[in-house]
Design a protein that fits this description.
Number of domains: 2
Number of helices: 11
Oligomer: single chain
Structural class: alpha/beta
Strand order of the largest sheet: 2-1-3-4
Order of helices and strands: EHEHHEHHEHEHEHHEHEH
CATH class of the largest domain: Alpha Beta
Radius of gyration: 16 Å
Shape: globular
Length: 248
């Protein structure tokens, strides 16, 4: 059996993406997940917040993953949703140039999923500050995907995102689903929406694309693993991701 190693770049204060990703991979024993962290403690529109996502810092973390000879590297964070999608495109190119390993990100994978599904609009759920949420919506509008409904929690402390209850997440998803969007995006890799996605989709009739799940979905495709093996985790895994890097 071919061993597959998936590398994840992880915000230092994130406590969700690793256990959720491991749970998703539980039925795929030939695949292992390996993470390395770099400092991220808050999300805001500020110089301090933006500085957390400097390319040099993330590249240093990616080099450590390369020591584990991973097959693919995923930036499992959503900063480019408010900083601009080009940030992740250039970052992934830089990671591959530095390590020789193909790379993707949560947001580029989400954008690909929305495109493959054919979504013309979406509903947005996040724990972020309203100003961050507004920047995300503007970036998607420029991409040609309108946000028809949105909910955010108004939080700034990255660690606190993980303490959002299942009931709160589900309630926000249901509220944006009332606008009948083509899809719903849960934009945060430190909020445990992925385990709720399939049940919510069954109840609401709309796909729920969580960014922890989109990262893994694309990483599996880049590693040559059939993503439909995880279809019990939601409609995302019925979609076929490109087996190469894309502009997202």
């Amino acid at each position: 059996m071919r061993r597959v190693r998936i590398g994840m770049l992880t915000p230092s204060s994130n406590t969700v993406l690793e256990p959720v990703s491991q749970a998703m991979l539980a039925g795929l024993p030939e695949i292992s997940l390996h993470a390395t962290r770099f400092p991220v403690t808050e999300i805001a529109l500020s110089e301090h917040s933006d500085a957390q996502f400097e390319t040099a810092t993330i590249l240093a973390a990616a080099e450590l993953l390369a020591h584990a000879r991973v097959d693919v590297i995923g930036w499992n964070g959503t900063s480019s949703s408010w900083l601009g999608f080009d940030r992740d495109r250039l970052l992934c190119q830089a990671i591959t140039a530095k390590t020789g390993i193909r790379a993707t990100s949560a947001v580029l994978a989400l954008n690909e999923a929305l495109t493959v599904y054919g979504a013309k609009d979406f509903g947005l759920v996040s724990p972020y500050l309203p100003a961050v949420q507004a920047r995300i919506i503007a970036n998607y509008r420029a991409l040609g995907i309108d946000c028809v409904a949105e909910r955010c929690l108004g939080l700034q402390d990255n660690f606190a995102f993980a303490e959002t209850s299942d009931d709160t997440i589900a309630s926000m998803v249901r509220e944006v689903a009332a606008a009948q969007p083509d899809a719903i995006a849960v934009m945060c890799t430190n909020m445990a929406a992925a385990p709720l996605a399939a049940e919510l989709e069954g109840a609401l009739g709309v796909p729920v694309f969580d960014t922890v799940a989109t990262t893994l979905w694309k990483c599996l495709a880049l590693a040559g693993v059939e993503g439909r093996r995880l279809r019990s985790w939601g409609r995302l895994f019925d979609l076929r991701a490109a087996a190469n890097t894309t502009d997202g």
